[in-house]
Design goal:
Largest sheet: 8 strands, mixed
Low-confidence stretches: 2-13, 156-167
Oligomer: single chain
Radius of gyration: 28 Å
Number of domains: 4
Number of helices: 6
Helix content: 10-25%
Amino acid sequence: MVGTLVLAGTFVLSARSSYPWVSDCGESPLFARPLNSEHAVFTARAIRVGHATKISGRWAGPWAIGVVQERFWGLPWWAPPVVLLTTHPFLEGETYFVDGKRGRLLLTRFLPIVEAGWCTRTRPVADSAVELRLLREAPSANEVRIIGIVHNPRRSEELRWERARPANLEGMSRAEIDALEEHERYRVVAMHDVSHVIPGARIRVTRPSGETIVTANAKGIYEVAGRVADDYTLELLDVPRTRRTVPYKVEKKELIQKRLFWLDLDIFWNGGIEGRVRDVSGGPVQALLDLRSTDGYLSGGTVRTDESGVFRVGALPPNRYILSISPYGPRDFSPYTLLYYPSSTSLEGARIFEIAEGQQIGHVDFAVRRLPKLKLQARVTWPDGQAEVDTEICIAYPPTDSLCSGTTDGNGVADVEVFGRSRIRAWAQKFVDAGPEGYWMHYGDEVELDTDKLPQRLDLVMSSRRRFFRKP
């Protein structure tokens, strides 16, 4: 009876203490043999997971009860086909490739409990074709192998969230905010790759002693196998004119160090937009531009103009796009009003660019007027008049994000810079450490004003409003 309770308690404690998140620490290298005596590698289907949130009707959580599908090493032959998986985000019904470790303690070492792990190669089986191929067709101990998948252009989409994030966190308790932020982190298990692999893709492999052609299999996996460490260049062949690729290089020293080298080969979209930004007087200007698709899935990213005011956004997939200048509002590196091409201050007046596969659009030109930079003194107090020190002054140029700068002195006063000919919102905010778990952001009431009619001093008042942030 006592033994049964101890075993049950061990399982419960392992599940309850399972925390699936850790700061970004990269990913473990490829392997074809056990890394140590605790290493456990197998595949398992998650039949039940900890109930943290639901994604498309399936529970997601920090632990899972899994049914073992295929064993490689680390699980005793006599162990049952059911295992408790911990320290990883899991989605109910998904089959996982598990790169984990057994417990070090005497009891956990002999129980079917495996830490699926932080910074490991644990992932859905659908995303583990390369790992499984290496394990099923292991290279020799001294062999150098370059392996990867050939992809057509790709993008990621999220499955539908059952729980929507509130638009405003004000009024929520610390516990509610903690729970919401924890739920949002499970987005990682909701990502799925909708790219297409290229079966039969041909790759030219060049090294100092010659070249050869290798062909990807039906799953798009290619291998440069049975070779020695050397300098290699890999180039995809037969790329359509409307798409593009680049040569991929692997240096000898990398292969000496790793021996098993993962290198995916990607084909990129080849659409593009280019143009020039000039001042209304005709001279070139340097500015920041942003290109985004109207469906919200894709971003061409932000680009800067060169010294002559020329910009180019490339590698664009077919889609409909909107181009803007100074997307974050006027800044030192782009002192201009937010404009949507050709010259609208509102999204409704933006021109939509429809880019077909491989299409190039040129002569997309902006004419802008530089905004003057002005000084603004602000003083921050509480409603009783007490000055607030070490507090930031935040300025926003609607509808763009805010920029917080200038910290108040012992008298609650700070000097900040703003740009003229603008309508702005201003407020004060201060971060207060709340211990190892996080910190509070206290902030004051917002004030709206025209920068062409700045007061001699802007008075900002702190309020009781605050928001909790969890530390990573």
